[in-house]
Amino acid sequence: MQGDKVSVRIFGDKAFKLFIIFLSFVAVLPLFLVLGYIIKNGIASVNWQFLINLPKPVGEAGGGISNALVGTGILMLLSCVFSVPLGILAGIYLSEHRRGKLSYLTRLCVEVLQGVPSIVIGIVAYLWVVLPMRTFSAFSGGVALSIMMLPVVVRTTEETLKLVPNALREASLALGVPYHRTILKVILPAGMSGIVSGILLSLTRIAGETAPLLFTAFGSSFMNLNIFKPMSALPLLIFNYATSPYPEWHSIAWGASFVLVVFVLVLNLITKLVVRKWKTQF
Amino acid sequence: MGIDYKETTDKSLKKISSSELIFRRVLYISAFILVVLVGAVFFSLLVSSFPSLKKLGIRFLFGKTWDPVKGEFGAFSFLVGTLLTSFLALLISLPFSLSISIFLGEYFSRGFFSSFLKSAVEILAGIPSVIYGFWGLFILVPVVRAFEIKLGIMPYGVGIFTASLVLSIMIIPYSATIGREVIQLVPSELKEAAFSLGATKFEVIRKVVLPYARSGILAGILLSLGRALGETMAVTMVIGNANILPDSIFSPSNTMASVIANEFAEATETLHLSSLIEVGLLLFIVTTIVNIIGRQIVKKVSIEV
Asked: What was the ipTM of the complex prediction?
């Protein structure tokens, strides 16, 4: 082989590596642009008053987002209540029955559910809850978000429980412990950290969801604790204020975005810490 | 569990066996509820879009005008809008997500750069879509508008191109993560064999790694396509919301998801509402098919290796 051909190939190799490094960093550049703008524009409007005040009408200075914060909290709580018990039980079923018709079908449905666009889930919650109750409500928003949470909870429960060694189960059964107590007192606690991190993971996923809330929780500019009435949420408030024509509202939306991003990132961090600290190791 | 409790007369044992039975039943029912849930989602979408299915039939798919005032509902322009934005976004994001996969899978699989890029991609996936839309609306739209003025076309700023840009940022994490995983699954014997024949790293990647990981990379692309098709908020905020057939990639348009987001809460007439639900049904079917194919490929790849 001639020398210059080899040097061309070596040059091509180096050029390709640089190209890959360059493109990879260009790809994550938008992340820093987005975060940078949110911090730059958001931090100015965030202060204690911003967090505890209610929104004010256009033209009045100093509106806050307390109703949206409370609303997001209530919505997350509601969707946990709806989805966590069912999700964990279905996850246990799947980890106990690896094969079988129902397991296969359920796994398929979990996959389908995970891919359903959030706006479609919003339509379904509207049809199931809003139409019969004749009003937009936090309850229907919770139903929509819980449908979005469900597949993540089921999957992480299944995956974690599959890692629990069979010896633990056999030891428990050999001692004469009945099946259901073996599952609830031995298998489930052994996989607890994985399940908790799955729930946290799904919460980060739904904390910023807007589309399913557009025609379920709908939004409200008042503080509302009744779950059968329309309720505001952080992402809804950001959407409504960002698309409004008023600059004051835009700055509120930047502030709310800042709060939401910080919240999501902190939740992500906590999830990671939970995974690292109580890692299910066998 | 094949113990026959009938022999024993011990009451506590009987109690245990009955609560065990209840527990098993509860587990079974929970799994079953999930199946029922997905079935119910499909059927309630189908039933609620029945008025529009009956009245409009196939015209719904190919009708070009969507005018709630006149009661005309043809979803063709939304289909075009959705397909254009999604595929354009895939096209834009592909070189970047592939680079990240190769970067993490081949060049820097551990170390500072790797963990930096990995967490950056993770955070990118975690940012809510409404925030991407907000950022796109205020930062990206003026940039695109300036670009359009330079090109000498109508400077809308909003439109298919802008929506695709925002979408492409949002879907990078999906294909990049799966791409990395399948690239790391390429057996090192294959790579070492190529290296020992004198191939450079570039040649190994091009001739060995990429062909081997081909189907996995395709699966990643399909899954991010599923995500792009159904993405609502970010697209709604920057696409311009015009119910017209787009004539170029810079023209304002609407996607299936964004038209639902815009009109659903205000739709009062039965036909309008059921047409919007039919759009949702269509979206559900298409994303489900794309996702299932993608996941099947992922499963097959990881079993093979």
From this structure: 0.90
